[in-house]
Design brief:
With about 400 residues, the chain is of the alpha/beta class. The chain has two domains: about 5-135 and about 330-410, 3-Layer(aba) Sandwich (Rossmann fold); about 145-320, Rossmann fold (3-Layer(aba) Sandwich), CATH 3.40.50. It has helices spanning about 10-25, 40-45, 60-65, 85-95, 95-100, 110-115, 135-140, 175-200, 215-225, 230-235, 245-250, 260-265, 275-280, 280-290, 290-300, 310-315, 325-335, 340-355, 365-385, 395, 400-410; strands spanning about 5-10, 30-35, 50-55, 70-75, 105, 125, 150-155, 205-210, 235-240, 255, 270-275, 300. The strands form two sheets. The chain has a six-stranded parallel β-sheet with strand order 2-1-3-4-5-6, sandwiched between helices. Strand 5 (about 105), helix 6 (about 110-115) and strand 6 (about 125) form a beta-alpha-beta unit. Helix 1 packs across helix 18, helix 4 (about 85-95) runs parallel beside helix 6 (about 110-115) and helix 14 crosses helix 15 (about 290-300). It is globular, with a radius of gyration of 21 Å. The mean pLDDT is about 90.
């Protein structure tokens, strides 16, 4: 009998794509279901999986307490976003959480070295690279760079202001760190709006806005796009698909504040313009993470909004990943290994399963689980129209068509 694997997609627009791809790689030997956050506990109880795959560690201990017979596998969904030592230091302070996980799939051998340095066991650690960058790597080898692309992409990075379930910003102001981060987001959003206005009035480009995974796409339509005349509104769209790289590869240029989106954009060859010199937040984000410092050095830095039209007209696709970015991809994402991270992950997971002796668990049949997932998702969507921003549902979010070609070449 096939092992039952439940994958918890923590956010639809961050973990949705790698979760779907990992499912595709695993389902030839296993029964696999990708669950949203809101339906996750229901499927734990009634489908009764053998294995749970998570992209964030916070729920592992609770899983172990409530379902001691389930095996927990952690795939690091935030590789490259933090420092090499950060995850190891976190587990050093939370040893019980580490003990509750049966297999950890990490970005690179440097992460394993960090565990050693912090006196932590490494017998459960395996290196797979970064599952979030798999489609970017695929498109970088496939997509021909074009100067004729007409769409300007703008990335939202304002989750404290524009919460994915529609909560007001005051909900996040719990401490000084959030206060400072909120101020940075306010400053960046103000410039974001000014740039959007400039592009609408001074150029003929189409503009595609992609919200942060923890933002509400609905609020962009209600409070941003709908404020413009119909003639201008027709040139703006909001992208809520689950795969960032499938969107970014079709852009002429990406306009963004500091976020990991610049990495995937550069991998697929799309140049990036950063506007934090105007919003006066460049120093703040430079101190926030090494990755953002690399972004500031390798993205076009916009000094004045009036210069934007000229910069866009002269900008060229990226043919080679900048050296500084390549170094950090090698250091943290094992980039020199060309095998896809989801492929490497699936091999380790299948190997792990072979060494386990799972007992047969009676639970709801797979087709009923899928039907209930749809019913519960759409029922919750009626209660709160924003839940699709964070919670993945296969029927609602669909399947990225470019993935078909992706899987042919796996």
């Amino acid at each position: 009998m096939k092992s039952k694997i439940l994958i918890r997609a923590h956010t639809a627009r961050r973990d949705g794509a790698p979760a779907v791809l990992l499912k595709k790689f695993l389902e030839s030997e296993n029964s696999v279901f990708v669950s949203s956050v809101i339906n996750f506990n229901y499927f734990l109880k009634y489908w009764r999986p053998d294995i749970v795959i998570i992209f964030t560690v916070s729920i592992a201990l609770d899983l172990r307490k409530k379902f001691p017979n389930i095996k927990v596998i952690f795939v690091d969904g935030e590789v490259i976003q933090y420092g090499i030592d950060d995850l190891a230091k976190f587990f050093k302070d939370n040893v019980k959480l580490l003990d509750s996980i049966d297999l950890l799939l990490l970005g690179s051998s440097n992460h394993i070295s960090a565990f050693k340095k912090n006196g932590l066991p490494i017998n459960k650690l395996k290196v797979i690279g970064n599952t979030r960058f798999d489609s970017a790597r695929f498109y970088s080898n496939l997509e021909k760079r074009s100067l004729q692309k007409k769409i300007i992409g703008m990335v939202g990075a304002f989750p404290l202001l524009n919460h994915h379930e529609g909560y007001p910003a005051i909900r996040s102001l719990k401490n000084k760190a959030n206060l400072r981060y909120s101020v940075a987001q306010i400053s960046n959003f103000y410039v974001f709006r000014e740039i959007l206005e400039f592009l609408l009035n001074e150029t003929n480009y189409e503009i595609s806005i992609r919200p942060h995974p923890s933002e509400s796409s609905d609020n962009y339509k209600t409070f941003v796009i709908n404020k413009y005349p119909k003639a201008l509104r027709s040139r703006i769209s909001v992208d809520s698909t689950i795969d960032f790289s499938s969107w970014a590869k079709d852009l002429k240029v990406l306009i963004s504040s500091s976020s990991t989106s610049f990495v995937e954009s550069m991998i697929v060859g799309t140049p990036v313009i950063n506007y934090e010199s105007i919003s006066d937040q460049k120093i703040f984000f430079s101190k926030y993470a090494e990755l953002f410092r690399i972004g500031h050095k390798n993205c076009h830095q916009l000094g004045k909004i009036k210069d934007l039209k000229k910069i866009i007209s002269k900008i060229k696709p990226i043919e080679i990943i900048p050296n500084q970015l390549k170094k950090i991809l090698i250091k943290e994402c094992d980039w020199n290994n060309s095998e896809l991270a989801v492929s490497r992950a699936s091999k380790y997971i299948n190997e792990f399963i072979k060494n386990e002796n799972f007992r047969i668990k009676l639970g709801l049949p797979f087709f009923i689980v899928s039907l209930i997932d749809n019913l519960k998702f759409y029922r919750n969507l009626k209660k709160n129209k924003h839940i699709h921003n964070f919670n993945y549902n296969s029927r609602y979010h669909g399947y990225p068509k470019p993935f078909d070609e992706f899987l042919k070449n796996k």
